[in-house]
Amino acid sequence: MMEYLTMAPVASVIFVLTLATSLWAFSDPNIYAKFILNPYEASRGHRVYTIITSGLIHADWNHLFFNMLSYYFFAFQLEAMLGHWQFGVLYMVSLILSDLPSIQKHKEDSWYNTLGASGAISAVIFSAILFNPHGQMGLIFIPGIRIPAWIFGILYLVYCHFAAKHARDNINHDAHMFGALSGILITIILHHTVINEFFSKF
Question: Is 127 in contact with 191 (CB distance < 8 Å)?
Fold first, then answer.
């Protein structure tokens, strides 16, 4: 644990805070009511803080497990490559940007709520892909099948775009897609040479 705190203190704090807050919400429904993002309200200037707090809670154990597992695989190493404050900026700004399209899309839907850190974690994953495009990636529920990270990234974006238009699975695919795109953009801004480094590896 001390190794992670030394190597990636910002990622460690976010990891522990998200776990703790999500577990707190599991035992206290009032936390969901206070922290969840409702685009109808946020678009009218009410409870705007939930753009951030909604990223600290999750719908259930599976949602929390898959998000934190993905975060664990990429966040700590990414902070070591990107920098401490840079990682914090990437995570927080992507968390906000990933929710803005959902707020616009559902600003008239008073019934619609969204939560989870998926947008920011997508940003972390795609930032990591820029640094290591040939790393092997796959899906946990399809073991044994691994593909280069850059191909995985393209397929992921195509899937998110399609799912955002057609899926009815209560998953905020818009947040996933725009989180990923935010991660790419912010990484380029923070690390100007990453694009050249990316293409030089092909």
Answer: no
* CA–CA separation, 51 and 82 (whole Å): 24
Find the helix packing angle between 173-190 and 84-105, rounded to 10°: 140
Angle at alpha carbon of residue 178, lines to 175 and 180, rounded to 5°: 105
**Strand, coil or helix: 148:** strand
Q: How far is CA 47 from CA 14, 79, 104, in A?
A: 22, 30, 15
d(CA 198, CA 150): 10
Write down the pTM of the prediction.
Answer: 0.93
State both tokens at 85.
Answer: 């404050």
Give alpha helix (H) positions in the chain. Answer: 2-7, 9-27, 29-35, 39-42, 50-53, 61-82, 84-105, 118-131, 149-166, 173-190, 194-200
Q: In the chain, which stretches have pLDDT less than 70? A: 1-2, 4, 140-143, 167-169
Of the chain, the end-to-end C-alpha distance in Å amounts to 35
Sign of CA dihedral 175, 48, 113, 100: negative
Give me the residues paired with residue 148 across strands: 136
What lies within 8 Å, CB to CB, of 43 at 6+ separation is: 103, 104, 107
